[in-house]
Amino acid sequence: MRNNVDPMTKDKEKVLENILWSIALPGFPQLLNGKYLKGFGFIALEIIINVQAKFNLAILLSFHGEIQQALDVTNFQWLMFYPCLYFYAMWDAFKAAAGKSSPFMYLPFVFSAYSVTVGLILSPKVMLFGKLWGPVWLPMSFVIPGVIVGFIIKKILQYFTRK
Fold first, then answer.
1. Handedness of CA 54, 59, 64, 65 (dihedral sign)
2. H helices within 54-133, ranges in order?
């Protein structure tokens, strides 16, 4: 029996697989793709930052609605490194799976890292709908604006750099 899988569908599936594994833990897609040094490097950095920032405890407390406790336990000096590591590892996984992608495709990842970092900075003070969202929910809510801004800037740059 012949394999009738469209190569484009297979590429899109690989991109999705890499992105989803990267969301689970930065470094997993690199291991999956045989980039062991890079994969273990991302995993080591993720663990170091996560432990030093007490991020898992902040996530646990946030899921239980204990936002002030989550803010109190979080080491923001360490957690500030997390968005850039997270989105860079995701970009690296995307790039490896997509092969040649459209110009400026890194911009949604970059602007997501920027906006999540801003959300993290604002998280001890900013209230939405009368509630403090804390070091997990507020930065996560900043991903979508980062992606949107990144795609808009990508489209603008592509328009002005066409040959």
1. positive
2. 55-63, 67-73, 76-79, 82-98, 107-122
**Neighbouring-strand partners of residue 147:** none
What is the model's pTM?
A: 0.87
Question: What is the C-alpha separation between 83 and 123, in angstroms, rounded?
Answer: 14
The type of residue at 1 is M
> Residues 4-44: pLDDT tens digits?
555 456 678 889 999 999 989 999 999 999 999 999 999 99
Query: Within a 10 A sphere around the Cβ of 86, how many other Cβ atoms?
Result: 22
At 100-122, the pLDDT tens digits run 778 899 999 999 999 999 999 99
Task: List 127's β-bridge partners, or say none.
Answer: 132
User: For 48, left (φ over 0), alpha (ψ -120 to 50), or beta?
Assistant: alpha
What are residue 132's phi and psi, to 5 degrees? -80, 125
